[in-house]
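Researcher: Please generate the 3D structure of the following complex. Treat every line as part of one assembly.
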Amino acid sequence: MFKEKIEKLLGEGKVNIMIGYTESTGGQVRVFFTGLSQESNEFVFDDRCVQNLAVYVNKPEIKAIGKIGIVANLSTVKALLQLASESQIKDGQVIALAMNENNVIELDTFAKMEEFVANPHKSANDEATKKIQEILNMSREKRWEYWTNELSSCIKCYACRSACPMCYCTQCTVDCNQPQWIPVASHHQGNMEWHILRAMHLAGRCVGCGECSRACPVDIPISLLSFMLNDHIKDEFGQVAGTKATLDYALSSFKVEDKENFMR
Amino acid sequence: MATKKIKITNLPKLFEDLKKSGKTIIAPKQKGAKVYFAPVEHFDQVAPSYIQTVLSAKSVAFPRVEELFRYEIKEKEIIQKDNYTKIPEIVIFGLRPCDAASFEYMKEFFLKENPDVHFKKRMDNATLITVSCSESDESCFCTSVGLSPSSTKGSDIVLTNIGNGNMYVEVLTEKGDNIINANTSLFEESETIDKEPFVAKLTSRFDLNTVLEKIQTSYDNPEWQKNSYACIGCGACAFSCPTCSCFDIQDEQRENGGVRLRLWDTCGQQLFTVHASGHNPRHVQSQRWKHRILHKFKYSVDNLDMVSCVGCGRCIRVCPADMNIIEQIVNLVEV
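Model: Done. Output below.
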C-alpha cells in the first residue's frame, strides 16, 4: 500500500527523502530512510511502528536533503502540527503518509493533518492514564518518594530529550553553563532539576507519544510528568497540543482577560 | 592458576562471609523488567537469570559522578581539600566475561600515563568474580572481538556452571586467591576442566582483522552518513558501554567554596566538541557516530594497542533508534 504512494512521491519529486519504518532484528521495526524509489518496498507499517519519526524532521543532515516525506502514526502527525504551531515547519514542507482505516492517505497540508487528528482514534495511553491516577492518589510525600526513587536511576544520557520531537532547541538549557541553570551531574539534585525543567518546558506542548519513556535505557516512566501537566493545561486553558497548526500557546501568551492579574 | 569447585548451594554462605569481612557486594539485580548492577546483601537477591545488565559495571571504578576534591575560598586564597571519601572494598559478583575484559581496557586508559588516583583507588579495592555465559542473545558479539563467553581476561575469579549444582572455579589473581583463602571450607579441589561444553555457543559476526584493516581507510566512506541518519544523538550507547571512558569536569560552587566533579560524557552529543567560539568541528551527527566507532576500532588500537569494544551488545539493546553496531561494522567491511 505504502509502496506505490512512496514511489510516486519520490518519483514526482514531491519529496526527496522518505522516512518510515522497516523490519529490524528480533521482530522489531526501526526507522528507515530512502531517497531511492527502488528501496521503498522495505517499508512496513503496523502496530509495532510506535517511534515518533517527527524527531527526524528537524535533524540538520536530513533537512539538508530537501523535502521530507514521513510515514506517520497519530503521534507523528500531532508532532508535525505542534511543530507547525511553533513555526518549526512550514505548510507543505513535510508530507505525511498516514493510515485511515485501511487506506494510505496523503497529508500534504496542515489542514489535512488537523482533520486527520480530529477524527476519532483509539486511545493508546490507557496504561499511562491508570498509572497517573495511581500516582495522583498518593499522598504528597509518597509521590515525592516515588519520583525520587524513579529519577535516582537517571544517568543523564538525555535519550528522553533526543527522542522527543518537541525537544528541538539547538541549545538546551542544561547545556548552558554561563550561567549554569541546572547541575550537570546526574546526582539527586541534578536529576530532579533536569526532569522538572523538562516537564515544565513540555507542559501543554507534549503530544503524548511517550517516546521519552520508550527511549529511556533505565525505564523511567518520564512521560507521565508531561502527560500530567498536559491534563492541567487542558483543564485550565482548554488547549491540547498537536491538534492545530496555529496556537497561542497558553504558557507564552498573555491576554488582558486572563483571570490571573500578576502581570498587570 | 588454581582451579576449584564450589557447590551453588554454598554461594549464599560465600556471600555471608564476604559481607562479614566488610565487603560490599555488587551483583546483577532484577528491577522491573530489567537487570542492573546494584548492592546486594544476600545471594537470593541476585537475579536468577540474565544475559546482560542494562548498564555496565564500570561505575564501580568510574562512577557517573565522582567527587575529585573540595575547595574553600577564603578572601583571595583557595584551599584545596582532598577530602576523599572512603572507598569501600567491593566484590563485583556475576559480571560477564566481556565486562571483566572491559576493565583491562579501562585500566590501560586511566592508569597508563599519569595514573588517575581516583580510578586506581576504586580498582585496587575491587575484586571481580565473573560468571561465564551459558546463554547469549543476538546483540552479543564477544567472539567477534577476540573474547568468548568463558574468557578469563580481566577477572580475579571466573565461575562456570558445570551442571549437577557445581560451579567450576578459576582463580586468576592474588585478589582471587584472597577470597578463596578466606573461605577455604566452601571450595573443593578440582582438576582443570574444559569449559566449552558448558558455555554459550556464539558464532563470530565479523572478522576482526579485516575490520581493523578496512577501518584504517574508512574515514571518508559515505556509508557513515547513510548509516547514521537514524542516530538521534543521545548518550545511551556510551553511558551503558563498559569501555566508554570520556568524562566532563564540572565545579559546583557555592559562595565560599565548592566541589569539583568528574561526570560521564559522550562524543555522541553535540555539546561534546563545541568550542567556546561556537564552532563545532563535529557539527553533524554522522561525524559523532563515526567518531565513536573509530575510537573503538581504530584510535584505541593506535593509542593503546587495544580494541576498546568487548562485544557486550549493550549499545544495541539500549539504542532508542535501534542502531546496531554489528550491522554497521559488517556493512563498513563489505563496502
